[in-house]
Amino acid sequence: KDVMDTDRQELLAFLSAKEGDEYAPQNGEITGILKTIKDEMFAEEQETMATEAAAVKSYEELMAAKKKEVAALSKAIEQKLERIGALGVKIAEMKSDIGDSAESLDEDKKFFAAMETNCASKTGIHEEEMKMR
Coiled-coil regions in this chain (predicted)? Predict the structure, then answer.
């Protein structure tokens, strides 16, 4: 039941054939065909293995390049974050300095106004003393 009808008929014809009948073994031809198939399969396997090896090498080179790139970019990010932190501190210091400078300016303006008033009154006193002499 497992053997198809055409295969069964060929098998029966082979078994029922007598020596000298039409069957002439062609082992050489079959062996040649099998050797050709083997050689082709071996060549395909070698080609596939070479292609795969090249793909693996290419992948490894790409991964190495990407790892270097990631390391360089990570270092750049780290440096920029440090710079941002330093600039933040510098900005805070400058804002504090501006506040201190503004307070000092206000005090200096008050002192200047007081000095002008004081100088004006002393100038007046000095002029009166000069007239009295």
Answer: 56-83
Number of domains in the chain: 1
State how far the Cα of 26 lies from the Cα of 44, in Å rounded to an integer: 27
Q: Which residues contact 40 (CB under 8 A, 6 or more apart)?
A: none
Domain contains 17: no
Rounded mean pLDDT, 82-95: 95
Residue 103 lies in a domain: yes
Instruction: Provide the domain limits for residue 81.
Output: 25-132
CA distances from 115 to 42, 70, 122 (A): 107, 66, 10
Of all residues in the chain, the percent with pLDDT exceeding 70 is 86
For residue 15, pLDDT over 90 is answered with no
Place of tokens 């007081």: 114
Both tokens assigned to 129: 């003393």
SS3 6: helix
Mean of all residue pLDDT scores within the chain: 87
Token duo for residue 36: 């050709």
Please check whether residue 1 lies inside any domain of the structure: no
Token duo for residue 84: 């941002």
